[in-house]
Amino acid sequence: MHYFTEHKWIQFAALFAVFFVLVMAIDPATGGNFWRLQETSFWLLPDVVNDGLKFLIDDWWVVETYDAELDLTEESTMMKEFTRGLSGVLLFSINLIRELLLGGVKTVVAFTSWDFISEHEWARIPALPWPAVAAGTFLLGHYLGGRNLAILAGTSTIYIAVFGQWTPAMQTLSFVLVTVPLSVFLGLTLGVIAFKNKTFESILAPLLNVAQSMPHFSYLIPVVVFFGIGDHAGAVSTIIFATPPMIRLTILGLKKVSPEVLEAGMMSGCNPRQLMFRVLIPTARHDILIGVNQVIMQCLAMAVIASFIGAKGLGYDLLVSLNMLKIGQALELGVSIVLIAVVLDKLSLAWANKQVDYFANLPFHLRNKYSLTFLGILIFTSVIAYVASMFFPDKANYLYFIHESQGLTTEKFWDFIVDWIITNTYHSVQSFNFFMTTSILMPMKEAYLSMPVAATLLLVAGTGYIVGGLRSALVVTAFIAFIALTPWWDRALITAYMTTFAVIISVIIGCSVGILCSRSPRATKVILLVCDTLQTFPSFVYLIPVIMLFGVSDLSVLIAVIVYATIPATRYTVEGLSKVPQTLQDAGSMSGVNRTQRLLKIELPLAFPHIMLGINQTVIFSLFMVIIGAFIGTDDLGQLIMLSLSEANGMGQGIVLGLCVAFIGLAVDHLIHTWAEQRKKVLGVA
Amino acid sequence: MSTPPQPVIKCESVYKIFGDNAVKMLEQSGGKIETAALLEAGCVIGVNNASFEVHKGEMLVIMGLSGSGKSTLLRCISRLIDTTAGDIFIDGEDLLAMNAKELINIRRNKMGMVFQSFALQPHKTVLENIAFPLEVKGISTTDSMDRAMEMVNLVELTGRENDFPHQLSGGQQQRVGIARSLAVEPDIWFLDEPFSALDPLIRKEMQDEFLRLQSVLNKTILFVTHDFDEALRLADRIAIMKDGVIVQIDTPANIVLNPATEYVAKFTREVPRERVLSCQNIMEKYDASAKVSDITVSTDAIIETVAEAVLTEQQPVAVTDDEGKIVGVLNSKTIIHVLFGEASSMPVNN
C-alpha cells in the first residue's frame, strides 16, 4: 500500500486499468447515461444565454432618444446607444487614419454632410503618394532604431506598394493603428487597477483565464449581435481578444518591481501618480513591452479573422483568395501581413528603448531634421505625382498609387509551382494522405468516439486527483463535465482527438529540435530567433503553405496545427535547458558525467517543469489552430462555431461552444501548471 | 547656558509591530503596549520602544544583525512604513501627523535616501536617474540636468553619465544612488546598508569616499549597517539594536570600552581598540610636577597613529586640547595595555 501511494506511475496504471474495464463494460446501445449523458435541461443553456443577451439589447434600460434630422423621439435601450456610440468613435478613428493614407470623404462627411461633398469637389482628403509613405516609414525606422530598422521598414512598405496591395494593406494598418493603442491603453489601465486593488484582481483573474483560452471565433459571435458587421465590429472583437495578455503582463511586470525601487521613488518625493507613471510602469517596462508586442501580434491575427465579420483589409483578401484556392495571391497577402507584423513589432520596441540626448542643444533645423525631411519628401513626391498625372492622364500613375491590378505579382510563379507540386507529387501525397487517414487518424478518431462518458470523466478526475489532490480533481472534472452536459460531446471528442494528435507530434518534433539546438550556443541563438519570427506570424498565415502543398483535408489542418504548435514546444525546451544552473552543470562535470548522462540525468530533469509549460502552450496553440482549421473544413467544435456565426440565433450556441473549447484548454492548463509547480518546488528551481 | 539646539531627528518611544492582530490588540489595551501579549498573539515586534535624538551634522549609525529591526526603524523615520506607536519629530515637526502632501514636500526638500540594492531605474541613464528627484519636483529639464551633471562630478562618475545602470559596477551604481539622494540638497540623509552589497575592497573605497563627501557636505545622517567595523569607522554615535530594542547608544569609543551587555561585548571583543580609542579616552591625569616628554599629542588623536611615538619616548607624553593646554598624559604602559591587554581590565576615563 505504501508503495502504491509513493509511486505515481502505479496509480496511473491502476487508473488506466479501471478506465479500460469501463470502456469494455459500457455498451453504447444499453449504456444510457454512462455511455453519453442524455438530454437534460442543461441543453437549454444556449437559448438562455441568447435570451439574456437579447434582453440586454432590446429591453434593458429603455431610454428616449431624439433624432434631430427627423425631428422624432424614439425609444431605444442604453445598450444600443452605448454600442452605437462606441461604433461611431471606432469607425471615425479607423476612417480618419485610413483616409489620411488612402484618401476619401467619410471624415469630411462626419463634420458636414453628403450633400456638402457632392457640391464641393475639393472636400476630400487626398491619398498620400505611396513613395511618401515609404520614405516616412524609412525615416521613422531611422529615427527610432538606426539604419537596419530603416531598411526593414522602408523595403517592407515598398514591397507592399509594388505588389499592388496598397489598399488592403493600408486598410489593415489603419485598423491595427486604432486597435493596438486602444488595447494597450485598456490593458494597462485594467492592469494598474488590478495591481492596486486586490479584490478587482481576484475578480479579473478567472475572467482572464477563460478569455485567453476562448478560440478567436467565439469572440466574433456576440460582437456581431451587439455591434453588427463592419470594421468597428472587427475592431471591438480584436480589442476584446488582444487586451487580456496586456492586462496579465502589466500585473506581472508591476509585481516584479523591487520594493526598494518603489521606496526610492517615494523618497524622491513622488506623488502617487508620479510613482505609478514615472517609477512603476517604466521600471516594469520590460514585461509591459512584451505585452505591447503580444497585442500587436494578436491584433494582426485577429485582423484576419475579423474579416469574417466585415473588417476590410489584407485579411479579407486573404480569406477570399484562400476560398478560391488562389494560393499565389494568398501567399503574397500572407507575406504582407507578416511584414506589417514584424515592422510594427520592431518599431514599437525601438520606440520604447529610444534614448534622449539632453545636452545636444541643437538649432531648430537639426532638432527637427526628421520632420523637415519628411515634409520635403512629401511635397516633392506630391509634385512628382501631380506632374506625372498631368503628363499621362490616361495611364496608371505608378508614382502615386498602385492599384491591385497594376502591381507586380509573383502569383503566376507560385501557382505554377503549386501546379507542379500537385502534378508531380499527387500520387505520393495522396497515398500518404490515404495512409495517414485510414491507418492513424480514422482509428484514433474511432477510439476517441468509443469512449463512454463515464470512463472519460473517471480518467479526468483520476488524473486530477493523482496530480493535484482532491481540489484539482474537482476543478478538472467540473470543466469536462460541463462539456459532457452540452449536446456537443462527440464534437468535443473530435476536437480532443485532433488536438492530442497534433500535440503528440509537435512535442516530439519540438523537444527533439530543442534538445539538439541547445547543444550549441550558436544554434540556441538561431533557433530562438526563428521561434521569435515565426511567432509574429498570425496563425491564419500557417494555413497557406499547407493548403498549397496538401490540398484541403483533415490532414492539412493537422499539419498546419503541428507547424504552429511546435514553436512553443521548441522554444521552451531550449529555454529550459539553457536555464539549468551552471553550478549544477559543474557539479555534474566533477562527478564525471558524459554527454548523454549530463542530458538525461542533469539537464532534462531540471528543465522538465519549464518544458511542461511549453507543452501547455503547445496544447493551447493546437486547440486554437484546430478551431481555425474549421475554415478549411473539419467536423469538430470549430465547425459548429463557424456555423453559429451565420445563424440568426447562433449567439448562445457560439458562446457555449467557445466555453467548451476554453474548458478543454483550462483543464489541461490546470493539470500541467499544478504539476510543474510541484516539480519546481521539489527541484528548488521555482 | 543657552538652550540646547533643537535635534534634527527626535524619536520618542517608537514602536513598529507587524501582524494582523496588532492594531486590534492595541485598541483593546488602550494604546498601551504589552510586549508579551503581542508576541503571544503572533505579532512580530520590529521596533521596540526606540527613543533617541540626532543633532545637526551628526552621523548616527544604527547597527544590528539581520532581523534586529534596524531597517524597520529607518523606514519608520523616513515614513516609508507606518509607525505603530510613538512620536517622530523632524526639525521639531511631527512627522507622523503630516498629510500626504506635506510628506511629499518634506521628502522633496529635506530627505535623501540610499538603498542597499541601489534601487536605480534600469531604463534610465545615470544622468536621468540622478535628475529624477528634481524632475519629480517640477524643476525644468535643463536645470535638472545641469544640477545632475554637478552631482555626477561630485561622485566622480564624469564620463559615465549616459551609461545605463547595468553597464556600471556595483560601486559605480551606488555612487549613482548616492548622487541621486543628494540631488535635492537634503538636510537629512538616510543610508540603508549602502555598502553591504559591495566587495570588501570597493566597500573600503566607498567608505572613504563617503567620509570625504560628509566632510564637505556636513549632513545629518542616519546610517544603517550590519557591519560593526563599518559603524566604528564612520559613526559619531552608534545605536546597537537587537530584537527591535536599542541595547546601547553611545560613541564608538565608549561602546568599545564599556559594552552595555554581553551581546554588545561580543562585537567589541575582537575590535582593534587602538583604532577606535583616542588619547582622550585613556589618558591619565596630568601632574604638573611630573616630567613629560618634548612631544605632545592631541586629545582627538587615535591611539594607532601615536602609539609608536609614545612608546619610543622615555617620559610620559603630554596630551593637549585644541588650545594647546595640557589636559593629561599618556604612559607607554597604558599604550601597551591598549594594544595587548585584556579588555576587562582597561583603565577608563570618559
Automatic annotation (TrEMBL), chain A:
<feature type="transmembrane region" description="Helical">
    <location>
        <begin position="473"/>
        <end position="489"/>
    </location>
</feature>
<feature type="transmembrane region" description="Helical">
    <location>
        <begin position="496"/>
        <end position="516"/>
    </location>
</feature>
<dbReference type="GO" id="GO:0015871">
    <property type="term" value="P:choline transport"/>
</dbReference>
<feature type="transmembrane region" description="Helical">
    <location>
        <begin position="173"/>
        <end position="195"/>
    </location>
</feature>
<keyword id="KW-1133">Transmembrane helix</keyword>
<dbReference type="GO" id="GO:0031460">
    <property type="term" value="P:glycine betaine transport"/>
</dbReference>
<feature type="transmembrane region" description="Helical">
    <location>
        <begin position="652"/>
        <end position="672"/>
    </location>
</feature>
<feature type="transmembrane region" description="Helical">
    <location>
        <begin position="542"/>
        <end position="567"/>
    </location>
</feature>
<dbReference type="InterPro" id="IPR035906">
    <property type="entry name" value="MetI-like_sf"/>
</dbReference>
<feature type="transmembrane region" description="Helical">
    <location>
        <begin position="330"/>
        <end position="352"/>
    </location>
</feature>
<keyword id="KW-0472">Membrane</keyword>
<dbReference type="GO" id="GO:0005275">
    <property type="term" value="F:amine transmembrane transporter activity"/>
</dbReference>
<keyword id="KW-1003">Cell membrane</keyword>
<dbReference type="GO" id="GO:0015226">
    <property type="term" value="F:carnitine transmembrane transporter activity"/>
</dbReference>
<dbReference type="Pfam" id="PF00528">
    <property type="entry name" value="BPD_transp_1"/>
</dbReference>
<feature type="transmembrane region" description="Helical">
    <location>
        <begin position="607"/>
        <end position="632"/>
    </location>
</feature>
<keyword id="KW-0812">Transmembrane</keyword>
<dbReference type="InterPro" id="IPR000515">
    <property type="entry name" value="MetI-like"/>
</dbReference>
<feature type="domain" description="ABC transmembrane type-1">
    <location>
        <begin position="492"/>
        <end position="672"/>
    </location>
</feature>
<feature type="transmembrane region" description="Helical">
    <location>
        <begin position="372"/>
        <end position="392"/>
    </location>
</feature>
<feature type="transmembrane region" description="Helical">
    <location>
        <begin position="149"/>
        <end position="167"/>
    </location>
</feature>
<feature type="domain" description="ABC transmembrane type-1">
    <location>
        <begin position="169"/>
        <end position="348"/>
    </location>
</feature>
Automatic annotation (TrEMBL), chain B:
<comment type="subunit">
    <text>The complex is probably composed of two ATP-binding proteins, two transmembrane proteins and a solute-binding protein.</text>
</comment>
<feature type="domain" description="ABC transporter">
    <location>
        <begin position="9"/>
        <end position="268"/>
    </location>
</feature>
<keyword id="KW-0813">Transport</keyword>
<keyword id="KW-0547">Nucleotide-binding</keyword>
<keyword id="KW-0472">Membrane</keyword>
<dbReference type="GO" id="GO:0016887">
    <property type="term" value="F:ATP hydrolysis activity"/>
</dbReference>
<protein>
    <recommendedName>
        <fullName>Quaternary amine transport ATP-binding protein</fullName>
        <ecNumber>7.6.2.9</ecNumber>
    </recommendedName>
</protein>
<comment type="similarity">
    <text>Belongs to the ABC transporter superfamily.</text>
</comment>
<dbReference type="GO" id="GO:0005886">
    <property type="term" value="C:plasma membrane"/>
</dbReference>
<dbReference type="InterPro" id="IPR027417">
    <property type="entry name" value="P-loop_NTPase"/>
</dbReference>
<keyword id="KW-0997">Cell inner membrane</keyword>
<dbReference type="Pfam" id="PF00005">
    <property type="entry name" value="ABC_tran"/>
</dbReference>
<dbReference type="InterPro" id="IPR003439">
    <property type="entry name" value="ABC_transporter-like_ATP-bd"/>
</dbReference>
<dbReference type="InterPro" id="IPR051921">
    <property type="entry name" value="ABC_osmolyte_uptake_ATP-bind"/>
</dbReference>
<dbReference type="InterPro" id="IPR017871">
    <property type="entry name" value="ABC_transporter-like_CS"/>
</dbReference>
<dbReference type="InterPro" id="IPR046342">
    <property type="entry name" value="CBS_dom_sf"/>
</dbReference>
<dbReference type="GO" id="GO:0006970">
    <property type="term" value="P:response to osmotic stress"/>
</dbReference>
<keyword id="KW-1003">Cell membrane</keyword>
<dbReference type="GO" id="GO:0006865">
    <property type="term" value="P:amino acid transport"/>
</dbReference>
<dbReference type="GO" id="GO:0031460">
    <property type="term" value="P:glycine betaine transport"/>
</dbReference>
<dbReference type="GO" id="GO:0015418">
    <property type="term" value="F:ABC-type quaternary ammonium compound transporting activity"/>
</dbReference>
<dbReference type="InterPro" id="IPR003593">
    <property type="entry name" value="AAA+_ATPase"/>
</dbReference>
